[in-house]
Specification:
Number of domains: 2
Distance between the termini: 40 Å
Structural class: alpha+beta
Oligomer: single chain
Largest sheet: 5 strands, antiparallel
Number of helices: 14
Order of helices and strands: HHHHHHHHHEHEEEHEHEHEHEEEEEE
Length: about 375
């Protein structure tokens, strides 16, 4: 499905991206969002330092020179008013067939990267996620979301999995060492079922007391590839501060299922559900506020029809980090799946097509080294 303002703002990651982008366009808005977000922060003693650092999202105000001289918004109503009045000419809709790479594309990429980096599945949403979720803020962000949605096709956010893929190894020299990977998806399925059975034995009465554990919905242990380098190096959930990446070009063959939004994920969970209510209960309650039955796709069953599963950037922005209703008493979460990445479910894994490249993160971003 295509990306529009409504679907973008329905997703926590899409809302957070839009709010971060607004903060980059106007320093006043960034400062106001930081202060107002602190009042919603579930961990204020930890994150109150944001009030004295860069504006929300760590942007530093990419496009708001001179705007901080005016008073920042002090209430939600004032912030919503300023968001609705934000000058969006820098994000004017691109022409069909336009080539990304200018300042708007860089602003959008940085805001997307901030949203991906802020995704958490083991605790309550942080201050800026909570702020972006307020109805008044969402309504005020709609004009900006419309501009973002217009850029999505130009930036390839709705692009299906391309034959050219990349395997990334963080801080590891040499060719991809995949000896740690599960060659058979049945190993993942067995581990998931064992983890669920073990978690059932120690379930508390309320989800808030459930222990943290496995929060991913990805088939961990199977080969993962990314669409584009170096852009994908900035789009990693729960990243560990890596500054050194070894990247190998590969060719990805086979039948690939595209996850382009919430409905694709929901349909997959309905067709191939795997119960994870006990093992995900504590963590997914923290991030969604929902306590109930949870499922993820049974990747062992999915592998009987598909060689790989690809999550588009647009699909990620719409659907990640929220409870997706599978049926009346069952839901799922897309968690731990980097936007634009693919998991390979069968033995038909990508074939290496070129030399390993080393990329280092420097002040100007990711730079390929000789």
């Amino acid at each position: 499905m295509g990306l529009d303002a409504q679907s973008l703002l329905a997703g926590p990651r899409g809302r957070r991206m839009c709010l971060d982008l607004a903060c980059r366009l106007d320093e006043r808005i960034g400062l106001g969002a930081s202060m107002l977000g602190a009042e919603l922060d579930p961990s204020p003693s930890f994150r109150s330092v944001l009030l004295f650092g860069p504006v929300a999202g760590g942007s530093g105000g990419d496009g708001g020179a001179g705007q901080a001289d005016r008073e920042p918004p002090r209430t939600i109503e004032e912030l919503a008013r300023d968001l609705a009045a934000l000058d969006l000419t820098v994000l004017d809709a691109p022409s069909p067939g336009g080539v990304p790479g200018g300042d708007p594309a860089q602003l959008l990429h940085r805001a997307l990267s901030t949203s991906v980096g802020a995704a958490m599945y083991w605790q309550e949403p942080d201050d800026q996620d909570a702020l972006a979720a307020l109805p008044d803020i969402g309504d005020a962000l709609r004009p900006l979301a419309e501009r973002v949605a217009a850029w999505a096709p130009v930036l390839g956010w709705d692009r299906p999995c391309a034959p050219q893929q990349w395997i990334v190894r963080w801080g590891r020299p040499g060719s991809p060492d995949d000896s740690w990977l599960h060659r058979d998806v049945s190993r993942w399925a067995a581990d998931a079922r064992e983890g669920e059975a073990a978690a059932r034995k120690k379930q508390p009465r309320h989800a808030r007391n459930a222990p943290s554990g496995s929060w991913w919905s990805t088939p961990l242990g199977l080969q993962q590839t990314v669409d584009r380098v170096p852009a994908a190096l900035d789009l990693v959930e729960d990243e560990m501060g890596w500054v050194d990446a070894w990247v190998t070009p590969v060719h990805g063959p086979g039948r690939t299922l595209e996850i382009t939004g919430a409905e694709d994920w929901i349909a997959l969970c309905r067709e191939h559900p795997l119960e994870v209510s006990a093992s995900r209960r504590g963590d997914w309650y923290q991030v969604t506020g929902r306590d109930g039955r949870w499922v993820v796709p049974d990747w062992e069953q999915v592998a009987q029809q598909w060689d790989a599963v690809h999550l588009t950037v647009a699909g990620y922005l719409q659907a990640a980090t929220r409870a997706l209703e599978v049926d009346a008493d069952t839901a799922s979460v897309i968690g731990g799946w980097d936007p634009g990445s693919t998991y390979w479910l069968t033995g038909d894994v990508p074939a290496v097509t070129g030399e390993v490249q080393r990329w280092l993160h420097q002040d100007e971003g990711w730079v390929r080294t000789p």
